[in-house]
Amino acid sequence: MKTRGLETANKKLGNLVEIVEQIIKRKGKAKIFESGPGYGLVMIELAKRFGDKIEIIGMNLKPEHGNKSIMIKYALKRKIIDKSDLATLKFPKFIYGDAGEKLPFKTESIDLVYSQTSVYLYKDKMHFFEEVARVLSKNGISRITGGFYSGEEGIAPEFRSLIKIYRNGREIQAKDYVKKFRLFKIVNLRSGKQAIQINPGKLDFNLKLEATININHIYKNKWGMQSIYTIN
Length: 232
Ligand SMILES: C[S@@+](CC[C@H](N)C(=O)[O-])C[C@H]1O[C@@H](n2cnc3c(N)ncnc32)[C@H](O)[C@@H]1O
Fold this sequence. Notes:
Blueprint: H1 6-13, H2 16-27, E1 30-35, H3 41-50, E2 54-60, H4 68-77, H5 85-88, E3 93-96, E4 110-115, H6 125-135, E5 136-144, E6 163-167, E7 170-172, H7 174-178, E8 184-188, E9 194-198, E10 207-214, E11 225-231
Bound molecules: S-adenosylmethionine.
């Protein structure tokens, strides 16, 4: 599904509108990055609401997963925008690439990073988290869902965890490993859900990506990438 909007994002990530309002109050403008926006409905809802007070960039793996024309088509259909907005709205920008590699932003340049239901597809999830910490500005904030578990029924136990970490041939639970890093936080949201919050700074998990397994190559209708790491 590539059409989740702001309402779902607010439940899964916390109130993004409030977060953006706070950044604008503090800095006048907000630079925002969404990783894996799909059709970009959250981005366009924020753009419609905040206008030129925000600059928003979304990175999909491929243009066919979501681009400006798909975004406009669905935003009109959902009545997020109307035709009169087409000439005036400051549209979010799409870029394409693998967000598990180096993010194409300067260090300390982004005020808000968010991502819903996308990280489970990345090969190098832990590197993505490190990069989020790097690109976030001082006092910048991030909210991320969906990286650790496939959450899928009908998947063998060995594929349910999407981040596997080994030390000297023994598996260490990824959720326990990340607890040691102060820039990595799990936050409890008002909705009762939890999200990952990476805080700005230098984050180095000291891991080496050894292999990835595409869950979809094993199960026809299931999606996710298992990332297997060793501790350096
Ligand atoms: C299941 S869709 C979710 C879209 C949207 N966030 C939503 O919740 O409706 C997954 C999105 O992640 C993006 N994606 C998958 N792998 C990616 C990668 N390695 N780097 C960046 N984006 C990726 C896809 O392009 C797609 O837009």
